[in-house]
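Need a sequence for this fold. Nothing fancy.
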C-alpha cells in the first residue's frame, strides 16, 4: 500500500521529500507505540506505521537512479542495503537489554529517534536550501 501512496506523493512533493515524509510518519508512530494504554491505540499506531513503512522504496530507487550513473547502480544499491543492514543489526541486542531491564517501551522510542536523526541528516545532505 505504501508504494501506491508514494507515487502521487512523489509527484506532488518530490522524491526526497516523499521519502522523508513517509519516514517521519512511520518513525513517529514507532516512537509513540509505548504510550497507548489500550489495544486500539497501539493497533492504530501499528497500522499507521505499516502504511508508511515502505513509503520510501520507490522514491529511493528513483533517487538513486537519478543520482548514480547506470554502470555504478548495482554497487550503489549494494552499499545502501549493506549499510541499512549494519545499522539495524544492533537493534535486537539493545532491545533485549532494555527488555531485561523492564524498559521495552524505550526501545521503540529510541528506534523512532534514530530514524528521525537519519531523516534530518538526509534532508540536510540532499534537499535544496538545506544547511550544509
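Here you go.
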Amino acid at each position: 500500500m505504501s508504494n501506491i501512496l508514494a507515487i502521487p506523493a512523489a509527484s506532488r512533493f518530490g522524491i526526497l521529500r516523499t521519502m522523508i515524509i513517509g519516514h517521519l510518519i512511520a518513525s513517529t508512530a514507532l516512537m509513540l507505540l509505548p504510550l497507548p494504554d489500550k489495544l486500539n491505540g497501539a493497533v492504530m499506531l501499528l497500522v499507521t506505521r505499516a502504511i508508511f513503512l515502505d513509503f520510501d522504496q520507490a522514491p529511493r530507487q528513483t533517487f538513486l537512479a537519478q543520482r548514480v550513473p547506470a554502470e555504478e547502480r548495482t554497487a550503489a544499491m549494494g552499499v545502501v542495503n549493506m549499510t541499512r543492514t549494519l545499522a539495524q543489526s544492533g537493534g535486537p541486542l539493545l532491545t533485549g537489554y532494555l527488555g531485561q531491564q523492564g524498559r521495552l517501551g524505550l526501545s521503540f522510542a529510541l528506534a523512532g529517534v534514530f530514524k528521525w536523526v537519519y531523516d534530518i541528516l538526509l534532508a540536510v545532505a540532499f534537499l535544496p536550501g538545506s544547511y550544509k
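For context: Residues 1-127 form one domain.
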